Each structure stands twice: as structure tokens, then as C-alpha cells.
């Protein structure tokens, strides 16, 4: 009887051990495809976080659905701001102050005085085409404002038309049964030669905000939507720009996402160019396979610049981080996330990309930033902050090897136990 009990006990322990190991392996969300890097879990329990920034001590500030949370280097956390009316989509740290976007406002928060100031209260709406994003350099905050429409024309009565930050002259092309013109409300026609006046703050552009004198200026325009940006070691501002999609009254087929170097006073082509090419070129067609009609009669700038990198499709990549010092990969190489493939890529200085991480389909990657010698990756759905850095051993990808080894050990113990009992 004792032998039977011992055998049953050994089998149960073995099954429990195997189940636990299998469960741990299945929780591994990442496959590492590059032996030169390693990835580990830095923090957990951050399911409300949409974005993050960090200070000189590497303390992390999370922009969440209801405020700002501080995570110190020792892992302890505290609320900086708790407000159910806040939903922070982008956040930066600059000189003991936090700057963040909530709704369509740019807000500043002094960490010492606890004082909050609304710096810009009327950023143009975007019909959820893209998002607002901020980045800072030399006491200047740069704010990306996406287009309000896919390609310059609203699709229904509820949609808000684009506001142009520069003067535009239209060709009078109207779309749909209700003859809707570009930069107009639904059902409003436009005429050839009609001028759209510039607005102080418009859609599809980047504006700058001087922290000291509070002056707002247009930095660059004709940018459909920025899905991630960062500076390289030379101070160049690199940005992911989303391509025009196949939807709406002015649908476009054949476009892709891009990475550009953004420069001051440059028009990047939207709504009549994408990736440096006019929409009436053979690269693009409308939904019926015909040439796309141009809506501008005068171009703000001849020959808009070509991108540094062209991706494979549109609406796919976001979350850009530049390895300025070459701490992980090549100096000034870029990391970005492809949501269609749930993969992280590294892009070298020759424009060649390499897939380095493969996530499972359960991830909701919200933000990527270079923090000192590491890349931090925020997964909102699972409430995890990953840390990517250069190292020999991959802490997550190694689980499969651990599983195989552990199962072998368990089976060996079972065999030895049963053999001993029989004897």
C-alpha cells in the first residue's frame, strides 16, 4: 500500500511541476531573435499607463488614464496627480517639470511647487485619426498634431474638417453624393482657386512652444500623423509618419508608413503627397484603381522631401527610439514597433531593418523610450514595463530551454523513483 501511495504521490508532484513550468513558459510574451540583446521585466502592475518619461535619476513618470504616477528606481510608487478627468496620451520631463497632453490641452506641472498650468488649451481635434505627441529640446516643446481626416476630406456629418496651419489654394475637387470639398464640413462644396487661410495652430503639422517666452510657432507642416519620434546624436529629429489609408471619400491605395528627418519650415506633402511622391503617381490609386486626383492647385513647396525609410504598409509602425550612443545596437540606429506583426525592429543607418523581438498577440505596446543604456517598452494591456539592453543572455527567451531541461529532470526523477520502489 505504501508503494502505491508513494508512486501516486510522485506522479502527482511530477504533473504539478510540469504544469507549473508549462504555465511559466506560456506567460513568456516575447521571443528574442537577436543574440546580442536581452530583455527582462522591469516593472509590473501598470495597466492604466499610456505613456512614460524619466528624470535624471531614472525615476519613471507614468501618464495614465487618471493622472500621473511616479515609479522610483527602487520600485516604490506614488501618485503625483490623481484626477479622473485626466487621460494623458503623451508626457515629458524637463528641468524638474512635467509636461503632458490630456484631451486637446498641453499642461505643465512643477514638481517642486505642485503648480499646474494649462499652456495650450485649444489644440485642433483630429477625429481619432492620430494622436498628439510631445518631445522637448533646448527649452522648446515640440507638439505633433495629426490630420483630422485621412486625406483632406471628411467622411460624414459628425467629422471635423482639417484646419490648415498654412495657406492653401484648392482645385475645387468635390467627393461623394453630397459633393464634399477638402478642408470643408460634410456636404460643403469648394471651388477652383478657393483659398484656405492659415490658422495659428492647425492639423497635420508640428508646432513649437518656447518654455521661457511661451511663444507658439509652426515648425513643419504637411505631416499626416506622427506615431513616434526621437532625436539622434546629431540633434536631428526623426519621426514615424503614418501613410494615407484606403478609407473615406478620398481613399488611397498603395501607401505605406515612413520615417522622416523633420526640419523647420518644410512642407512634407500631405494631403497631395506621401513619401515624397504625388498621389497621382503610379504608386497610388483610388478605391476604383484609378489615378488619385490632386486637391491643391498650388503646392506650398515644390518636391517635398523623401523619407529616410519606407515601411511595407500603412498604419503599422509606431513608437520610435534612437540609440544615440550605440549602447544596444549601431549608434543612431532606430527601434520601432510593428503592430501588425507584433514585432520590434532595429533600423540601421543604411535604412536596413532587422526584426529583433516577436511579441505574442496579447500585447498592447503604448510607448518606447531610450533610458540611459536601455530601451524601455510599455505594454498597457498586461501592465508591464520591459527593459531591452545589450547582453549575452536573454532572460525571457531562455524559458523554453529551462522548460525542456526541467521536464527532463522531472522525468528522470520519476523513472528513478519508480525503479527504486520496484526494487
The number of domains is 2
Task: Outline the low-pLDDT stretches.
Answer: 18-27, 397-404
What's the CATH topology name of the largest domain? Neuraminidase
Q: Kindly report the average pLDDT value.
A: 89
Q: How would a textbook summarize the main sheet?
A: 5 strands, antiparallel
Q: What's the total number of strands? A: 32
List the helices and strands and how they pair.
Blueprint: H1 2-26, E1 30-32, E2 37-44, E3 49-54, E4 60-64, E5 67-71, E6 77-82, E7 88-94, E8 97-102, E9 105-110, E10 116-120, E11 133-137, E12 140-145, E13 168-171, E14 174-175, E15 180-181, E16 192-196, E17 205-210, E18 216-221, E19 226-231, E20 237-241, E21 258-262, E22 273-274, E23 277-278, E24 296-298, E25 309-310, E26 317-323, E27 333-338, E28 343-347, E29 353-359, E30 365-371, E31 374-379, E32 384-390, H2 399-422
Antiparallel strand pairs: 1-29, 2-32, 3-4, 4-5, 5-6, 7-8, 8-9, 9-10, 11-12, 12-17, 13-16, 13-24, 14-15, 17-18, 19-20, 20-21, 21-25, 22-23, 26-27, 27-28, 28-29, 30-31, 31-32
Brief sketch in words of this structure:
The protein is mainly beta and 423 residues long. The chain is built from 2 helices and 32 strands.
Amino acid at each position: 500500500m505504501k508503494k502505491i501511495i508513494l508512486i501516486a504521490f510522485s506522479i502527482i508532484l511530477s504533473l504539478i511541476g510540469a504544469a507549473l513550468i508549462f504555465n511559466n513558459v506560456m506567460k513568456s510574451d516575447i521571443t528574442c531573435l537577436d543574440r546580442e540583446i536581452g530583455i527582462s521585466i522591469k516593472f509590473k502592475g501598470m495597466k492604466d499607463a499610456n505613456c512614460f518619461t524619466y528624470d535624471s535619476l531614472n525615476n519613471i513618470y507614468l501618464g495614465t488614464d487618471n493622472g500621473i504616477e511616479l515609479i522610483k528606481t527602487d520600485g516604490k510608487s506614488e501618485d503625483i496627480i490623481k484626477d479622473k478627468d485626466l487621460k494623458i496620451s503623451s508626457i515629458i520631463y524637463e528641468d524638474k517639470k512635467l509636461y503632458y497632453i490630456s484631451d486637446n490641452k498641453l499642461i505643465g506641472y512643477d514638481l517642486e511647487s505642485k503648480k499646474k498650468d494649462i499652456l495650450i488649451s485649444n489644440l485642433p481635434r483630429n477625429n481619432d485619426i492620430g494622436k498628439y505627441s510631445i518631445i522637448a529640446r533646448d527649452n522648446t516643446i515640440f507638439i505633433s498634431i495629426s490630420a483630422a481626416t485621412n486625406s483632406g476630406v471628411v467622411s460624414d456629418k459628425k467629422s471635423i474638417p482639417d484646419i490648415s496651419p498654412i495657406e492653401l489654394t484648392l482645385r475645387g475637387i468635390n467627393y461623394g453624393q453630397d459633393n464634399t470639398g477638402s478642408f470643408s464640413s460634410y456636404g460643403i462644396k469648394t471651388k477652383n482657386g478657393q483659398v484656405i487661410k492659415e490658422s495659428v495652430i492647425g492639423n497635420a503639422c508640428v508646432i513649437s512652444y518656447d518654455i521661457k517666452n511661451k511663444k507658439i510657432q509652426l515648425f513643419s507642416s504637411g505631416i499626416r500623423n506622427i506615431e513616434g519620434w526621437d532625436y539622434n546624436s546629431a540633434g536631428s529629429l526623426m519621426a514615424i509618419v503614418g501613410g494615407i489609408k484606403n478609407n473615406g471619400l478620398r481613399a488611397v491605395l498603395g501607401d505605406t508608413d515612413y520615417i522622416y528627418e523633420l526640419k523647420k519650415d518644410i512642407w512634407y506633402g500631405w494631403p497631395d503627397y506621401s513619401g515624397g511622391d504625388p498621389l497621382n503617381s503610379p504608386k497610388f490609386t483610388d478605391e476604383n484603381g484609378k489615378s488619385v486626383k490632386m486637391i491643391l492647385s498650388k503646392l506650398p513647396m515644390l518636391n517635398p522631401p523623401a523619407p529616410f525609410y519606407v515601411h511595407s504598409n500603412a498604419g503599422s509602425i509606431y513608437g520610435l527610439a534612437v540609440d544615440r550612443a550605440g549602447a544596444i545596437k549601431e549608434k543612431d540606429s532606430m527601434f520601432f514597433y510593428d503592430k501588425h506583426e507584433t514585432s520590434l525592429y532595429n533600423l540601421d543607418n543604411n535604412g536596413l531593418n532587422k526584426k529583433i523581438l516577436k511579441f505574442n498577440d496579447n500585447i498592447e505596446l503604448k510607448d518606447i523610450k531610450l533610458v540611459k543604456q536601455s530601451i524601455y517598452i510599455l505594454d498597457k494591456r498586461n501592465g508591464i514595463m520591459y527593459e531591452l539592453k545589450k547582453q549575452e543572455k536573454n532572460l525571457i527567451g531562455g524559458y523554453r530551454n529551462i522548460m525542456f531541461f526541467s521536464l527532463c529532470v522531472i522525468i528522470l526523477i520519476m523513472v528513478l523513483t519508480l525503479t527504486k520502489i520496484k526494487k
